[in-house]
Structure to design on (541 residues):
């Protein structure tokens, strides 16, 4: 299969208004109304998640789907293990966070006064603290934005519009209002540094405008320094879209302008949306009232995630323990739980802002991709994990880096290049570069296993599921190790953990127990995905 045909996002054609309205009503909403809750409803819906299974995925028809195992004796044993182990996984970090613990004084200064049951709160993560402390202000900003945009849209036009004819086809005052709101937001957030941001935008716009039809324009687009980080994705997308269309002679409906470039900058707080998708949704918005089922369910998901994070920060001070390296005297099980819950917090601290700003976009009639499809603890495939984690960025990487490099034709080399880029995109540190190289290395065993034991050939065998579960356990251990190095304890902390696990009898016993527990967890993950298949849902993650 041609990787470009599978992953490249086509340009939206120009249709009649009726066709566009019908497409707008159905785009990304392909799940029919259900009268009752089902287990698979736990996973957030994503567009194109329902299709006929591919032969390469080991399933060719509904008749080949495995019968449900939820009520079998095997899975009842798994339930019993989960009911015992999950509370223990919660109790370990809670007990380590007690004020009576000998290590508590080492990280007490990192804690703040909380609001749940008189406990302290671990608000020491700088990234999440910035968002958490400003949730009230951001909520007011949403109300102001939506209210004044509504007022601007219903006000009668006093004079004849001087906007270009094609721009007048956009929803009333939509882009102009977003331009003004974006400029105000940039000035409030960055002050004098707003001039630097506007200069970057101007230079970026100049590249797209003045190097039409030239390969030099593409080179200059990618020549921006890494310090642009999040803004890079949107600006590169807009520039390449414009340059490609100018080579093809496309104008009018597919034009780039300074207004959308400015609006795009503020969207870096949320999921990444391609330039043509952004413009198309502004031209034909599909706003849903806050009382609609889709909006209400998404609000519930956001609030539930936010409260989950609050409970973790009030009862598990694992971020402070990690920052102060206050794990002296911890057992391997305790160290592993500090690392595991740090990874859960990293997942939540990204998921919550992304869902907050995606909710803002949905209320405004723009439907960006869902960034987090699955829970961090519901992943066993290295490749599947990166498809579901920061999904919009993954789609951007595939379209603008992976496919142009040749896709699966040079899989190993392209994987190293992609993850090196992702690491440097996050920050210019050796720790993150090591993380990128480890991820690239750990993808190879999974690819090799899929080649040696393909599901199409062996998927019907009784032993296949259990061998796959053992391989998935190895995947999970490698992924956790790489992410602990890159985002939690670093290389030095990982050395200490490895020494405690492999250098002591207690550590080896813990490792065997961890493998057995992860094996149970993977079997539950497998069956959950089988349940999705029975419901006609096929995700590659």
């Amino acid at each position: 299969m041609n990787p470009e045909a599978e992953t490249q996002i086509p340009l939206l054609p120009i249709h009649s208004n009726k066709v566009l309205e019908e497409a707008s009503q159905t785009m990304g909403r392909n799940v029919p109304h259900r009268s009752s809750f089902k287990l698979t409803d736990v996973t957030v819906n994503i567009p194109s998640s329902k299709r006929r299974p591919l032969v390469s995925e080991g399933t060719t028809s509904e008749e080949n789907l495995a019968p449900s195992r939820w009520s079998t004796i095997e899975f009842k044993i798994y339930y019993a293990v989960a009911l015992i182990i999950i509370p223990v996984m919660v109790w370990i970090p809670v007990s380590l966070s007690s004020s009576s613990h000998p290590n508590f004084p080492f990280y007490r200064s990192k804690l703040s006064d909380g609001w749940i049951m008189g406990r302290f709160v671990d608000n020491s993560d700088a990234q999440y603290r910035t968002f958490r402390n400003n949730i009230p202000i951001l909520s007011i900003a949403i109300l102001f934005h939506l209210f004044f945009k509504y007022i601007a849209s219903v006000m009668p036009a006093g004079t004849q519009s001087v906007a270009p004819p094609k721009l007048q086809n956009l929803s009333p005052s939509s882009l102009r209002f977003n331009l003004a709101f974006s400029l105000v937001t940039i000035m409030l957030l960055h002050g004098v540094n707003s001039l630097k941001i506007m200069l970057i935008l101007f230079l970026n716009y100049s590249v797209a405008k003045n190097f039409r039809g030239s390969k030099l324009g593409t080179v200059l687009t990618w020549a921006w320094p890494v310090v642009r980080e999040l803004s890079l994705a949107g600006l590169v997308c807009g520039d390449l879209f414009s340059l490609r269309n100018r080579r093809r002679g496309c104008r009018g409906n597919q034009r780039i302008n300074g207004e959308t470039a400015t609006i795009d900058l503020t969207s870096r707080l949320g999921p990444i949306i391609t330039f043509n998708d952004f413009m198309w949704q502004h031209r034909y918005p599909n706003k849903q009232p806050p009382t609609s089922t889709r909006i209400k369910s998404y609000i519930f998901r956001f609030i539930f995630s936010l409260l989950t994070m609050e409970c973790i920060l009030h009862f598990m001070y694992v971020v402070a323990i990690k920052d102060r390296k206050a794990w002296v005297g911890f057992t391997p099980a305790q160290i592993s739980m500090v690392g595991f819950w740090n990874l859960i917090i990293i997942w939540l601290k990204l998921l919550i802002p992304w869902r907050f700003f995606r909710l803002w976009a949905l209320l405004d009639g723009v439907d960006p991709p869902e960034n987090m499809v699955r829970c961090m603890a519901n992943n066993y495939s290295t490749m599947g994990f990166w498809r579901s984690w920061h999904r919009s960025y993954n789609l951007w990487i595939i379209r603008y880096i992976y496919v142009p490099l040749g896709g699966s034709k040079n899989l190993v080399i392209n994987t190293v290049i992609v993850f090196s880029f992702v690491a440097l995109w996050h920050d210019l540190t050796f720790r993150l570069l090591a993380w990128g190289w480890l991820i690239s290395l750990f993808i190879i065993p999974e690819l090799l296993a899929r080649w040696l034991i393909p599901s199409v050939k062996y998927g019907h065998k009784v032993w296949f599921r259990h061998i796959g579960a053992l391989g998935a356990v190895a995947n999970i251990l490698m992924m956790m190790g790489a992410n602990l190095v890159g985002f939690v304890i670093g290389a030095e902390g990982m050395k200490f953990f490895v020494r405690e696990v492999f250098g002591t009898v207690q550590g080896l016993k813990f490792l065997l127990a961890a493998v057995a527990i992860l094996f149970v967890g993977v079997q539950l993950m497998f069956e959950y995905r089988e349940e999705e298949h029975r419901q006609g849902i096929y995700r590659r993650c």
